[in-house]
Amino acid sequence: MDRAGVLPALPEQPGSELPAVSLAQMIHQLPGLKFSGLMAYEGHLLQQQPDKDLKIKTAIGSLVATRHAIEAAGIPVAIVSCGGTGSYQASATVPGVTESQAGGGVFSDLLYEGFMGLTGHEIALTCLTTVTSRPTNSRVIIDAGRKTLCHFVPCSMPAVLLPALAQCNDSSDHAMDGTTKGSHVRVLMTELCAEHGVFELPPECEQKKADIGARLNVIPGYHDLTVVLHDRFVACRGNQVEAIWDIEARGRLD
Length: 254
Known about the structure:
Blueprint: H1 19-29, E1 37-39, H2 52-72, E2 79-82, H3 88-91, E3 99-100, H4 110-115, E4 127-133, E5 139-142, E6 159-163, E7 180-181, E8 184-188, E9 191-192, E10 197-200, E11 215-219, H5 224-227, E12 232-237, E13 240-246
Parallel strand pairs: 1-2, 2-3
Antiparallel strand pairs: 4-5, 4-11, 5-10, 6-8, 6-11, 7-8, 9-10, 12-13
């Protein structure tokens, strides 16, 4: 990602001159420290793209080659860690990888589904909001804006979950953004203000389900920057609250 760390092993580089080997040797010789392994992150390849899996495996191949170079210098490499949620399905299949960093998959979100093309993960995190205004027949205002939800490029806007019309014959729900889940329509929000969110109610949604006072679940565009805005998770199974978990590190930059 051209962000941090030392250069990996490349075919044109002799192993003995690798910065990674030199650093591992330094750590190995220092008292009080133990060299345990390598970590990389192929974040530049998360976006859904042609040959995504091949590009990820090629990138991780240089990580594994670095492991071999360090081991050739006589230093054991117990950990080879890589693979974010948007790439682990490819990186985890590379021989020599021992650990995956795919944490966000427990929640998933619109960024993972759309931008990264992640499959096999259900949306597990939503924000419960309240409709505070209906200025027009179609425009709906909720009490969740940028202080509650996250939006930044390349994330899509958050999506409101709305019940589909009961008489809709197509149970897949004709969502505005082309995505659906069960009997709900996903409606992308059109604006996030500091305290309020705005969306347009499509005709296939029941009007009264978005009346003032209605409680609506919203899928974050990117849950990493949504979770940090809140103090606790409310853990539910179906309609039953099972636990409340404090987000103890939230906002702890001191």
